[in-house]
Design a protein that fits this description.
- The protein is an alpha/beta fold.
- Helices cover 43% and strands 13% of the residues.
- Strands 3-2-1-4-5-6-7-8 form an eight-stranded mixed β-sheet, with helices on both faces.
- Helix 1 crosses helix 8, helix 4 runs antiparallel to helix 6 and helix 4 packs parallel to helix 7.
- The chain is globular and about 55 Å long.
């Protein structure tokens, strides 16, 4: 029997590291810890090996097309496919960041949304039947975080929530935010003053599109794409202000990654909270930050 193959992006530390740990503990498949920096990634692998676990390592920079293609080809030639993809790699500017907001908007969307989408476009064709995709979003990725000037914000929410939203339209929306930030007119067009929120709303919207695409192109393969808020976790990204441990933050993502095959009650295209609760991304009550 072919071993299942799990890939976790941005996993040399924080929540991604804990997801790798959880996957290694809960199954006997091949789990790939990935990182931009080979040295840091290998050090993280060694740390897990000291715990009696056995993850694999591969260098990966989701902003580099060459890096993505190298990893894709390696997975295809070595394993013939993958079973689980956890898209965890992301960045967030601090509240006291000195970079101009336009730069924050461009970089946040480039890494968190555009690079993730490009990586998925190359890796998702490798998914085997019963594949699982987990896109790590955020409480900041809740649709109603698009809460700038009304009624413009409501119109933006409506566009993101459209069940027939296309990739092209989604890309245009994100580009509009980035371009509007350069002339400081984004708030007058309904966008919030949070580049991270917009990037994660886009990731959540992309998740819904990806699930729809899988349903249309591979309807019998039981492929599930979900987006998850891992909670307010004590990591570098939160400046260690989070109240959850990295292992607690890894619980919902790893649960989604390990969903049993052909289970009607499985979340599907869902927005899942860190406590495994399914939240209505479009019309639900604001679940709060944690």
């Amino acid at each position: 029997m072919t071993s299942k193959v799990y890939v976790v992006t941005g996993s040399n530390k924080g929540i991604g590291f804990a997801i790798v740990r959880a996957l290694c503990k809960q199954n006997d498949g091949i789990v790939y810890l990935t990182a931009r920096d080979e040295g840091r990634g290998l050090n993280s692998v060694e740390a897990l090996k000291k715990e009696g676990l056995n993850p694999n390592f591969h260098q990966l920079d989701i902003e580099s097309v060459d890096s993505i293609i190298t990893f894709r080809d390696y997975l295809k030639s070595t394993h013939g496919g993958i079973d689980v993809l956890v898209n965890n790699a992301a960045i967030a500017f601090k509240n006291n960041a000195t970079e101009p907001f336009s730069e924050q908007a461009e970089v946040s969307c480039r890494v968190n949304f555009f690079a993730t989408m490009k990586f998925c476009d190359e890796l998702l064709p490798l998914l085997r039947p019963h594949g699982r995709v987990v896109n790590v979003s955020s409480s900041a990725g809740y649709l109603k975080r698009i809460n700038g000037k009304a009624p413009e914000s409501l119109e933006l929410q409506k566009k993101f929530a459209d069940p027939k939203l296309t990739r092209d339209t989604l890309v245009s929306l994100v580009n509009d935010f980035v371009q509007s930030s350069k002339t400081n007119i984004h708030t007058s067009k309904g966008w919030p003053n949070s580049a991270y929120s917009v990037s994660k709303v886009a990731v959540s919207a992309l998740s819904r599109i990806q699930q729809r695409e899988m349903d249309e192109t591979r309807p019998d393969d039981d492929i599930l794409v979900n987006h998850v808020h891992p909670g307010y976790v004590d990591t570098d990204m939160t400046s260690h202000k989070g109240h959850l441990t990295i292992d607690q933050g890894a619980d919902a993502p790893s649960w989604l990654a390990l969903l049993a095959p052909n289970t009607p009650s499985n979340p599907k295209g869902a927005y899942v909270w860190y406590d495994r609760r399914i939240v209505d991304w479009v019309d639900g009550l604001d679940p709060g930050a944690y």
